[in-house]
Amino acid sequence: MKIKVALVGNPNVGKTSLLNHIAGTTLRVGNWAGTTVEKKEGKAFYKGYEIYLVDLPGIYSLEPFSEAEKVARDYLLNQKPDVVVNVLETPNMGRDLLLTAELLEMELPTVIALNMLDEARRLGIEVDKEKLSELLGIKVVQTNGRTGEGKEELLEAIVQTYEQKIKPIPLKYSQTLEEYLSKVEGSPKFEKIKKAQGLYGEDFDKLLKDERFAFAHGLFYKVVKKVNQGAFELTDSLDKLLLHPIFGLFFFLFLMFFMFKLAFDFSAPWMDWLDGFMNRFISPLVVYLLGESLLSRFLSEAVVGGVGFVLTFLPLIASILFILSLLEFSGYLPRVAFLMDGLMHKLGLHGTGFIPLLLGFGCNVPAIMASRVMETKRDKLLVLAMVPFMSCPARLVVFSFFAVLFFPNPALVIFLLYLFGVLVAFLTSFFLQKLVYRGALHHMILELPPYRLPALKLVLRITWAHVKHFIYRAGTLIFAVSVVLWAMLNLPPGVSNPKDSFAGYVGRALVPIFKPMGLEDWQITTSLIPAFLAREVVLSSMGVIYSVEEEKKEEFEPKKALQEQGVAFVNALKESVLNLLNPMPKALEVEDEHSQLKSAIKNSMNPAQALAFMVFILLYTSCLGTVAVLQKEGGTKFALLFLAYSFAIAWVSGVIAYKLLSVL
Amino acid sequence: MLEKVEVGKKVKVLDIEGKEDSIKKLQAMGIRKGKVLEVVQKLGRSMVVKVDHSKIAISKSLAQKIKVQ
Known about the structure:
The complex is a heterodimer of chains A (664) and B (69).
Chain A (H helix, E strand, L loop, with lengths): L1 E8 L5 H9 L4 E4 L6 E9 L2 E7 L11 H13 L3 E7 L3 H13 L4 E6 L1 H6 L2 E3 L1 H8 L2 E4 L8 H13 L11 H8 L6 H12 L1 H22 E3 L7 H9 L4 H44 L3 H37 L2 H7 L1 H5 L8 H6 L4 H6 L7 H10 L6 H14 L3 H26 L9 E4 L7 H35 L11 H13 L7 H6 L9 H9 L12 H24 L13 H10 L2 H13 L4 H11 L1 H28 L1
Parallel strand pairs in A: 1-4, 1-5, 5-6, 6-8
Antiparallel strand pairs in A: 2-3, 3-4, 7-9
Chain B lengths: L9 E7 L4 H8 L7 E8 L2 E6 L2 E6 H4 L2 E3 L1
């Protein structure tokens, strides 16, 4: 038997923590269909029932102010959950009971969970739960989302409410309001109210609102006892510092620096190790075991390579999402929105947008995933359209190769390229606001919840749920496209020269498109095809296509190679810890490679062409990982449109750069 | 107007103008006629107010619509 349960409550009341305790490892994250609103779900088994729980978005009212309320309201009306669990933040019951009143109007089997029991106790707030239960006619349990206290009682209450179909005692508003309602047909009460709203308009609306508040207020005074006035609140003291116009900003910048380092420098050695493990151990091992053939090459290069490519993202994504969840559950995140609001507002965004944009300089992929902290769909899509123009270390690798080769002052050129990327991001956002997301920026209204020490288990589980979601949604796409790219380079069967491969044909067909940029060599256009995987690949693929770099073939011995991987693993461990101690961000350093390729490129390009090429690489979203997460967060249409847009703007900018420098 | 209240001061809400969604949301969050608000911090375009046990960051443009005493 299955019981469908919806968790409903205000934002930051600890629904997710509660769900985490009940659902354990079955916790999953995703998006509500057709929206950018996050969905969390999980299940538990209790007394022979499979209890499926879904965490509805945190809302203050069922009135549709934004996507979140619409999602919650539609779910309750259309999906008809078997039991609604209304989670209340006990210290804020006075406010939370408004939503309770609206839920009671729906007349669904309901359980009330008084959460944050410990915080309420500290503040000297006591709730008479028997009385509350008696007044509403439903079960009331007390819970603590942090420790999981009261979890059994909640499950028991859910099962009993389901078995006995315990519905709340019908709400009675004042005579005037009830008279209005008696004139319309419908059930439940919520249905009647909706009809009456349509019929009587504003007067009714105002009356209804007052009545709901009065109900919540009355209930609050009947069941809540304040024993201790003016208790010490740690949050207030912390906020004196953390919201301070100077100290608060300083702390935030320090935190961002730390976050940047932790995420990128800590995970870089692990990414290298994973890459090496897949490509220098698993891949040759497959060939070693199966013998040389097109099939074994396909398995070792396309399949193992593709899986390895997806895997290399994981350390980065996991560390970013871990830190982000930590910030989110600690209650700090909304404070960022307040602190950065001044700066970001000039760009037409709310303050929270600062985080993904900054992370973009480390890697666009987790930065795009970090856009999930944006409060509204509009803000989220704007951030999604800006992040890919933030230049990342993969681009830096390409820039430093070309800039050093062609320009007397490479550092300046690279700096200007970074700046240009930021400029294009802002212009993109500006035009999107003029054309698509018209209308002034919404007022900021954001609750700053009390600071809470997040439970490590919860943060780890949420991180894991996101990583799983990434593998499932983005990973499959990345894998599929990387296999296709491999096939383009290695088919038809028997090609030894890239010129004869499908990629070579496509590359030559692309030449007329790139000609206005001064790029007339098929070698360059062809090397852009595998570079769709990741920008830095353009250098190694140029190496192969210009046939200056022979792939080194070593004898493969499984035992010896395994030993080497073991050593590399220990080194990665050492390096990631050392990186954390080094105050400079390591992610921005570049190693010098491809010395033979340099002379080949030097002979076939001039500075104007090189600049055009760099500008093109900067702006065009030539990064499969980025496109995959854009698709995951913004939808297929958004991802494809953005890819086309980035190509167009990259092309135009490349042409202009070429012409400008040719004239000078 | 709430917008002009200094940091650290406590004021009582007299009236809230407007019928748009953001006003309705504020009311649902507990900022209503008769409530006592404490201005916690002001920075640039926005400010933080405390009502009962919750803190809310709002734009000053919205605070302009909240009449206080």
